[in-house]
Amino acid sequence: MNAFIDGEADAYAKRNARGPEIEPWFKGLLQTIDFHSVVDLGCGVAEHRLVVAHSVSGCRTLGVEAASGEDHVTPRQTMLFGRDIETFDIPECDLVMFSYILHWLPEAHEVLQRAMKVSKYILINDFFPDDPIDNPYAHCEGVVTRKRRYGMYCADAGWVRHIAVSYRYHNNPDDEPCQCEIWRKP
Ligand SMILES: C[S@@+](CC[C@H](N)C(=O)[O-])C[C@H]1O[C@@H](n2cnc3c(N)ncnc32)[C@H](O)[C@@H]1O
Questions:
Q1: Atom from ligand 1 closest to the CA of residue 20
Q2: Which of 8, 31, 38, 159 is most buried per CB count within 10 Å?
Q3: Does the beta carbon of 42 sit less than 6 angstroms from any atom of ligand 1?
Q4: Number of domains in the chain
């Protein structure tokens, strides 16, 4: 059972209807790599990061999202709604993006391993705590968020960290530390 597939994704989309605010440096990070296709796993219904990626390289784009997308006006990028990342067969592509999604996935390590088999670059944008933190998720009983430095799984597989930006959530110095990293196949 996955709480997001079972309704929380639509509830989340309603609570966050405007979509994420894209960090001012996000586009610049993508401009440092050569990519022609991107898969954004857990992209949200607003698909903002795919729009940025497309603006950088004119790449083919695919978004995968648990929400049904029923409130979504015509998607600009190719979107698969109602899909669970943990069972999704990731197609071959240059770049797989994981932005604020790995901490939701109980099988994050396994999903990352599959992504590394089919891509040249992995983007991980997420919380970046010194030590792993597990927190109950306020909106769903029994659901836990697992904040960790997920790039360690890329490093363990011999991947090379191409670039990284450290920042604070919502740009507030009191907020949690976060990091956006792009990893490259060796
Ligand atoms: C915190 S949002 C991040 C959205 C966007 N990637 C960003 O950078 O802001 C997490 C998204 O992942 C989706 N999600 C959570 N678990 C999922 C799963 N197992 N399969 C597909 N999508 C999932 C949620 O519905 C939500 O839209």
A1: 9
A2: 38
A3: yes
A4: 1
Order across the sheet with 160-168: list the strands. Answer: 78-81, 60-65, 37-41, 95-99, 121-127, 177-184, 160-168
Which of 1, 4, 8 for a ligand 1 pocket mutation test, highest count of atoms within 8 Å of Cβ?
A: 4
The CATH number that applies at residue 75 is: 3.40.50.150
Secondary structure letter of residue 84 according to DSSP: -
29, 65, 101: residue to mutate for ligand 1 pocket, most atoms within 8 A of CB: 101
Q: Give, for all 186 residues of the chain, the pLDDT tens digit.
A: 688 888 889 988 888 877 678 999 999 999 999 999 999 999 998 888 999 999 999 999 999 999 998 766 567 788 999 999 999 999 999 999 999 999 999 999 999 999 999 999 999 999 999 999 999 988 888 889 999 999 999 999 999 999 999 999 887 878 899 999 999 999
Instruction: Give the residue from 165, 185, 138 showing the smallest Cα distance to 23.
Output: 165
pTM score > 0.85 for this model? yes
* Domain containing residue 40: 4-184
The residue whose C-alpha atom lies closest to atom 8 belonging to ligand 1 is: 99
